[in-house]
Amino acid sequence: MVRVPHPPLRFTSRLHDERVAAWLGIMLGLSFTTTFVTGLISHFMQHPAGWMVWPSHPVNLYRVTQGLHVICGLATIPFLLAKLWTVYPRLWRWPPIRSAGHAIERALVFVLVGAALFQVGTGLLNIAYWYAFPFFFPTAHYWTAYLLYGALVIHVTNKWAKARHTVMTRPEDDLRRRGFLLTVAATSGVVVLTTVGEAFSPLAKLAVLAPRRPGVGPQDLPVNRSAYAAGITTTIAHDPGYRLVVTGRVERELSFSLDDLNGLPSHTVRLPITCVEGWSAGATWEGIRLRDLLNTAGVRQDARVRIESLERVGVYTTSWVDHSHWHDELTLLALKVNGSPLDLDHGFPCRLIAPNRPGVLQTKWVHKVVVA
Ligand SMILES: Nc1nc2c(c(=O)[nH]1)N[C@H]1C(S)=C(S)[C@@H](COP(=O)(O)O)O[C@H]1N2
Ligand SMILES: [Mo]
Q1: What is the Cβ-side half-sphere exposure of residue 177, based on CA atoms within 13 angstroms?
Q2: Which of 231, 294, 367, 368 lies 20 to 30 A from 246 at CA?
Q3: How far does residue 319's CA lie from ligand 2's centre (Å)?
Q4: Ligand nearest, relative to CA of residue 365
């Protein structure tokens, strides 16, 4: 009888073992939970379901949740790569499929890995402003999040008992594994240190890997979409015929020239711009309270209002303001930032600034307030 020899065992390193995989899995479980929850907050702040009214306080809530989302997503990358390297020998296990249950489990792992790579990959490209993909990032990133988190929950349920046992029992020697895990954690720590300053200003100087940094830009404030990119020229923004109009379901329509606006009671607030791409920066804004304008025009106290930009085409040419936000005395139509009239890139002649709100909803180059 001919005996088929066993294939040689090639993956003998302890770094490919259960213990390393389990610890990396725990870290990934925690980080994907954080990014999933903060991602949902971001999605529903931008696209609230009918019954959702977001509070305007705490003022910095979105700054914290979105900073966490992006920085935690970046910190996940070393853990994800290490986990994939640790478990990839299992791809070569023979036979590839042992049973129907095993086939489903393997398919699920492919979904999990594919979705995880897709989320960190597209997230990374998006914050780097490299729109290399043919789909609309927010939609794809949002739906893939459910796929990823669903697959993750099933995977954790499958592995829970075994991983728990592995982590709880003491190994005989731990040194190489511990060194490997510490290296992965340290790499992740370096990623955090060199990016977190994009949202946490005291560390701004260290944020060498961040695409935007607080303090860097016209009037010490970063710009996401410039006036040039939005098609707003000096001629358009400085047109003497410019009027800010309050219209829609109002008792009286209002119309103001820039001089009129500068003559209205002005208020100063300290609020951050928080871009959904993770960077945020505090600034001092001066302008007119939105609620003063709306009360002068005469509107229902629970009215929603739409802020419209001079920008003609684009995804962020308008934004909705709920009553919880326009009642807030911090919500301004700002005319100045950090002591001087708005730079064209920051929305001259007039822009919305409100507390606890994603940057995409802080409309620049405002010329119309429409009450619904
Ligand atoms: N009209 C208009 N307003 C806009 C945008 C835009 O593309 N068009 N971009 C938004 C985004 S994504 C952000 S983060 C903030 C940035 O404001 P800043 O450039 O003054 O820092 O403006 C918001 N307002
Ligand atoms: Mo943004």
Answers
A1: 20
A2: 231
A3: 13
A4: 1
